[in-house]
Amino acid sequence: HGSEACPVEYLNGVPLDVEFGAGSEAITHCLAKRHRAKLVVEVDYAFPADINGVVNKNKATFLSNIDKMIDNYEVVNGMQIGKDIDIVVVMSSSGAALLTKAHKSFGLDAYGSPNPNPFAALVAKGIAKGIKFYLCQMAARELGIKYNNMLDGVEFVTGGHLTVVDLQHLGYAVLKP
């Protein structure tokens, strides 16, 4: 449990006791404001599946929650991404497609060209906030992803899973959505 006053700021300006009922704020625990905390998010699959294995292509693994992560760290817990917490996202397997400008994973247009990445703005928002995005070259090779089709600000790593292990050895906590 954190030692900081909680919350630092209410989401949408609504006090917790109003949003969740009387007494909610007293039993809500927030993160301690840390300096140089480290998190690596490992994304292997582009789209989440439900408990029945049905894939939802309207959501992107991790990226669909990036706004919530940013709000939770920065607004609620008062931690600045890139200063108080380093967040690295490593995309491999089919998740690598989420770091492209366009890919067949998002369907094909009438001429057979890959559709644009509908989640590109979420990656750009994360990069603007200080989140680092790495694309696994092994996955890029398998998915036919070339440098000129990568989103601006994304960098390559030679192996996604190896990078996650390396970052873990450097003190990064691993989150696998």
Structural summary, described in words:
It is built from 5 helices and 5 strands; from the N terminus they run αβαβαβαβαβ. It has helices spanning 16-20, 66-76, 120-129, 137-143, 160-169; strands at residues 37-43, 85-91, 132-136, 155-157, 173-175. Helix content is 24%, strand content 14%. Strands 4-3-2-1-5 form a 5-stranded parallel sheet, with helices on both faces. It is an alpha/beta fold and 177 residues long. Helix 2 links the parallel strand 1 and strand 2.
Comma- or semicolon-separated keywords:
5 helices, single chain, alpha/beta, about 180 residues
SS-based structural class?
Answer: alpha/beta
CA radius of gyration: 18 Å
C-alpha termini separation: 22 Å
- Widest β-sheet, arrangement of strands: 4-3-2-1-5
Order of H and E elements: HEHEHEHEHE
Task: Report a brief summary of the structure.
This protein has 177 residues and is α/β, with parallel strands linked by helices.
Topology:
Layout: H1 16-20, E1 37-43, H2 66-76, E2 85-91, H3 120-129, E3 132-136, H4 137-143, E4 155-157, H5 160-169, E5 173-175
Parallel strand pairs: 1-2, 1-5, 2-3, 3-4
